[in-house]
Input
Amino acid sequence: MRLYPGDIGAATGLVINEWAQITRADGSAIAGLYASGNEANSIMGGTYPGPGITIGPAITFAYRAVRHALGAAQARRAASSGG
Ligand SMILES: Cc1cc2nc3c(=O)[nH]c(=O)nc-3n(C[C@H](O)[C@H](O)[C@H](O)COP(=O)(O)OP(=O)(O)OC[C@H]3O[C@@H](n4cnc5c(N)ncnc54)[C@H](O)[C@@H]3O)c2cc1C
Output
């Protein structure tokens, strides 16, 4: 794998959906796999409009990933307990 060191932030990376789930090339989500911050593809599509555009989405999508993972865990628990 080629590594390209850089500073500030990354504009490209793993493509995620609205719940920070990493998606396949066909757009389907990979269950249980999330990304945010520098590992995720920038919501700005490769541009850097200004300070805050990296940390803001990183925190937002990390929060959404946790919410989604908790929801999935609760659904599994409810299914295994029969309700
Ligand atoms: C000088 C500077 C100024 C910046 N100013 C701003 C700003 O004003 N506003 C803004 O929005 N953004 C700013 N940024 C960008 C912002 O800081 C980053 O985009 C953001 O911190 C990325 O968060 P992250 O969690 O994706 O990655 P990181 O913060 O890099 O976190 C990755 C973590 O993973 C750890 N890690 C790495 N490899 C491993 C491993 N193998 N095992 C375990 N842990 C590992 C690292 O130690 C690190 O703690 C700035 C960046 C720099 C360098």
User: Anything to note?
Assistant: The first strand starts at residue 21 and ends at 23. The mean pLDDT is 89.
